[in-house]
Amino acid sequence: MFISSAFAADMAASSAGGVSSMIIQLLLIFAIFYLLLIRPQQKRIKEHEAKINALKKGDEIITGGGIMAKVVEINEADDELKVEIASGVVIRIARSTVREVLTGDVKPADNNNKKTKNKK
């Protein structure tokens, strides 16, 4: 129960240093999260929006529901697309439901169809 004055002074000094070091640690953690998580995600979102805004007639897309389609018509006023999902089957979708633009990229199905050499 008896605390010496030197020990009490040491405790006061260490608690003041503890708060400042805790703030520095929190700022460092926030900076790491920003650099490793937030910034790359924002970059991906901007790239995705640029691809969707650059859609043109004839582009192949994948919708959020997994439907692969070809853009037939773009209605800028209503922010919707008319896409062909099969020969003669045209549906309307919202532009925001486009998950991926396949035109110019390697299509997911092409990765599985690579020819392998027969080993003898």
Q: How are the elements arranged and paired?
A:
Blueprint: H1 5-53, E1 60-63, E2 68-75, E3 80-86, E4 89-94, E5 98-101, H2 108-112
Antiparallel strand pairs: 1-2, 1-5, 2-3, 3-4
Please state roughly what percent of the residues sit in beta strands, choosing from under 5%, 5-15%, 15-25%, 25-35%, 35-45% or over 45%.
15-25%
> Spatial order of the strands in the main sheet?
4-3-2-1-5
Task: Output the structural class.
Answer: alpha+beta
Helix share bin: 40-55%
Computed CA radius of gyration, to the nearest angstrom: 28 Å
Number of separate domains = 2
Biggest pleated sheet:
5 strands, antiparallel
Low-pLDDT segments, ≥5 res: none
Mean pLDDT: 82
| Terminus-to-terminus distance | 85 Å
Number of helices: 2
Order of helices and strands: HEEEEEH
What sort of overall outline do the alpha carbons produce when their principal axes are compared?
Answer: rod-shaped
Tally of DSSP β-strands: 5
What does this structure look like?
By secondary structure, the chain is of the alpha+beta class. It folds into two domains: 1-54; 56-107, SH3 type barrels. It has two helices and five strands. A five-stranded antiparallel sheet has the order 4-3-2-1-5. A hairpin with a 2-residue loop joins strand 3 and strand 4. The N and C termini lie far apart (85 Å).
